[in-house]
Amino acid sequence: MCVGLPAKVVSIKDGMALVDASGAKREVSAELLDELDPGDYVMVHAGIAIAKITDDDASEAASVMGEL
Amino acid sequence: MTEEGKQAVAKARAILENYKGKKLRIMEVCGTHTHAIFKAGLRQLMPENVELISGPGCPVCVTPADFIDEAVWLATEKNAVITTFGDLVRVPGSEMSLAGARSEGADIVPVYTPIDAVEYAKTHPDREVVFLSVGFETTTPSACLAVQRAEKAGLKNFSILTANKTMDEAYRALKDSVDAYIYPGHVCAIVGTRLTEELTGEGISGVVAGFTPSELVTAAATLVELCSKSDEPFFRNCYPRVVTRDGSTAAKKLVEKYMEPADAVWRGLGIIPKSGMVLRDEYAAFDARKKFSVPSFKAKNPPGCRCGEILQGKCKPTDCPLFGKTCTPEHPVGACMVSQEGTCAAYYQYGGVV
Amino acid sequence: MEEKVMLVHGGGGKQTSELIHEVFAKRFRNLYLTEDDAAILPPPASNIAFTTDGFIVSPWKFPGGNIGKLSICGTVNDISCMGARPKYLSCAFVIEEGFPVKSLEEIADAMALTAREAGVSIVAGDTKVAGHGQVDGVFITTTGIGERLPGAHPSGKSARPGDAVIVSGDVGRHGCTILLARGEYGIDAEVTSDCAPLWGMASSVFDVCRDVHVLRDATRGGVGTVLHEIAGQSGVGIRLDASAVPVDPAVAGVCGMLGLEPLYLACEGRLVIFVPKEDAEAVVAELKKSPYGENAAVIGEVTPDEPGRVVMTTELGTQTVLPPPGGELLPRIC
């Protein structure tokens, strides 16, 4: 239901974050996340950063399988 | 991919390959999952007795034709500029799609985000601008943000036409069709995992999954493994790099402030009580339905179409007599064919091979 | 001369000849372009390739080119893809009243430069002016003639099992550039159009491969559409290695944001080539010598299975299908 794109936060100003997805840059709303800093990775959906990304999917896969 | 990631994927594949347990029906409720699963070729890795069913988590598919009729009415009768996610442009209404209305002169403007729709309204003060607010928990906050901005800017020419939906009642409504859910990762990113954890108390099992091939395969393996280990209902978060227990508190507060639950019609499924979100009365000025006194449209379901059963996992697209014949992505009849992520569209595009 | 094109410039009188001479003729100058009613051309040495194409693009100017360059490349590339050397072009303009003459000169400059690079002469033309709002800036139609290389026989029907599928560069750049240039979605990225005349590159393919089965330039529907067309016309399956398809990272980023598939974004300077597998390496090496081919790569092969389909090998090593082209590209959230 919801396309999400991981992107890196370049800068933050007035509740808007400039994000970069491998060279494609756009301003998105950062209002739904507390404590966002430049350098953080976020999941972007419909022009809004909906979550902070805390890991890459490879080590996530490792931890998910480790829990089984 | 890193070595540890590769090993994890290999372990997950081995679990799937060696599964010899009971027959399982697993539903991915999220339309983006449906597509990601096809794109990753995940079905080829699934054991023979595990069936993946595609559920009702495509906002475009479950939005009734009446909604398109309302939007077309606003564009043609009220001369409103319709701003919309691109997904809705080709969806057929009873008479015509938004693309059809555009070809007759209506102003239909695809936007990347509802915030851009507000900007459009700011720069076009002489026009009424309506944003078509569809989507689930992931998307609804963006519509509320748009209303908040319009409110702050004192805009009088911006409103939204809501068809927002929530998933929790749908999980309950469909629980008898499936053994376990693959929960939608980005819905859970907003709402957190408390609800899905609690659903185990109602006998509902599932895992939250992400969207990359490795996330899909590890989630599927987790699900199969937990199903085979015990009959107890379970929950597991397999997308922890994005999904937390609490989700986004700010998003939930925002939605709570602007919207409230209401009964909603799901195309193909009918009314699910309290599964929709509409603007609260105090924001009626931003509610296109109230602002323009939009008449009620009662679109008929196309005869022969089995979308309702498909959305509930009761039959496959290929079981429908219209599938691929009168109902194709170019000329969709039913809800599941209209969006690229609809179950029928996905089967049509990827069918035969996977 | 006036600063803007006016209706009177299309009237056929003095102002029309002034516009044609000052803007077009003096830039396009060649032996065959005269003031008579038609160009008289020497007979060709072999069979001729003959084609026409209309160009509308908004905005008319974009990073990497403009509508003038595009109008030459489009027709030159269609001719080139038949294994024919582009020789002569005609061009017809429909110009919106009020269009700046300076911009028209910029367009004509690009056409002259591109024609020179492609080795074609612009030998005939026509200019009409339409009222304000009746066209968007300027529309151009070019028609071209080429001489086919002896022995060249590429056709969309000729793909055979065992062929290698080659693309001459990274995909989706033109479509992405136009999308960004329109500024509708607020995305910034450094992407330039791949718009280029490809005869040099196409002829070099024939130099190293006697038996080029299919040669196509990917345009509007992108490389994905070409692959589907060839699979259909030749009645074969195409097995694509998804990870081998060259995509500029910024193009991939833009596509990710908008939920688009790079294989379906327009190209204006990319060849899709089907040759016997044993020739693939030489062809790629030759393509890489061209300034437009540094990212050339083998992206797949032709199979007898799954006729009419394009099947992709996924990251998990499983198979999936490249969905057929879906028409208008719209950003999606789901």
TrEMBL record, chain A:
<dbReference type="Pfam" id="PF01455">
    <property type="entry name" value="HupF_HypC"/>
</dbReference>
<protein>
    <submittedName>
        <fullName>Hydrogenase maturation protein HypC</fullName>
    </submittedName>
</protein>
<dbReference type="InterPro" id="IPR001109">
    <property type="entry name" value="Hydrogenase_HupF/HypC"/>
</dbReference>
<dbReference type="GO" id="GO:0051604">
    <property type="term" value="P:protein maturation"/>
</dbReference>
<dbReference type="GO" id="GO:0005506">
    <property type="term" value="F:iron ion binding"/>
</dbReference>
<dbReference type="InterPro" id="IPR019812">
    <property type="entry name" value="Hydgase_assmbl_chp_CS"/>
</dbReference>
<comment type="similarity">
    <text>Belongs to the HupF/HypC family.</text>
</comment>
<dbReference type="GO" id="GO:1902670">
    <property type="term" value="F:carbon dioxide binding"/>
</dbReference>
UniProtKB/TrEMBL annotation, chain B:
<protein>
    <submittedName>
        <fullName>Hydrogenase expression/formation protein HypD</fullName>
    </submittedName>
</protein>
<dbReference type="GO" id="GO:0051539">
    <property type="term" value="F:4 iron, 4 sulfur cluster binding"/>
</dbReference>
<comment type="similarity">
    <text>Belongs to the HypD family.</text>
</comment>
<dbReference type="InterPro" id="IPR042243">
    <property type="entry name" value="HypD_1"/>
</dbReference>
<dbReference type="InterPro" id="IPR042244">
    <property type="entry name" value="HypD_2_sf"/>
</dbReference>
<keyword id="KW-0408">Iron</keyword>
<dbReference type="GO" id="GO:0070025">
    <property type="term" value="F:carbon monoxide binding"/>
</dbReference>
<dbReference type="GO" id="GO:0051604">
    <property type="term" value="P:protein maturation"/>
</dbReference>
<dbReference type="GO" id="GO:0005506">
    <property type="term" value="F:iron ion binding"/>
</dbReference>
<dbReference type="Pfam" id="PF01924">
    <property type="entry name" value="HypD"/>
</dbReference>
<dbReference type="InterPro" id="IPR002780">
    <property type="entry name" value="Hyd_form_HypD"/>
</dbReference>
<keyword id="KW-0479">Metal-binding</keyword>
TrEMBL record, chain C:
<dbReference type="Pfam" id="PF00586">
    <property type="entry name" value="AIRS"/>
</dbReference>
<dbReference type="InterPro" id="IPR011854">
    <property type="entry name" value="HypE"/>
</dbReference>
<dbReference type="GO" id="GO:0051604">
    <property type="term" value="P:protein maturation"/>
</dbReference>
<protein>
    <submittedName>
        <fullName>Hydrogenase expression/formation protein HypE</fullName>
    </submittedName>
</protein>
<dbReference type="Pfam" id="PF02769">
    <property type="entry name" value="AIRS_C"/>
</dbReference>
<dbReference type="InterPro" id="IPR036676">
    <property type="entry name" value="PurM-like_C_sf"/>
</dbReference>
<feature type="domain" description="PurM-like C-terminal">
    <location>
        <begin position="160"/>
        <end position="311"/>
    </location>
</feature>
<dbReference type="InterPro" id="IPR036921">
    <property type="entry name" value="PurM-like_N_sf"/>
</dbReference>
<comment type="similarity">
    <text>Belongs to the HypE family.</text>
</comment>
<dbReference type="InterPro" id="IPR010918">
    <property type="entry name" value="PurM-like_C_dom"/>
</dbReference>
<feature type="domain" description="PurM-like N-terminal">
    <location>
        <begin position="36"/>
        <end position="147"/>
    </location>
</feature>
<dbReference type="InterPro" id="IPR016188">
    <property type="entry name" value="PurM-like_N"/>
</dbReference>
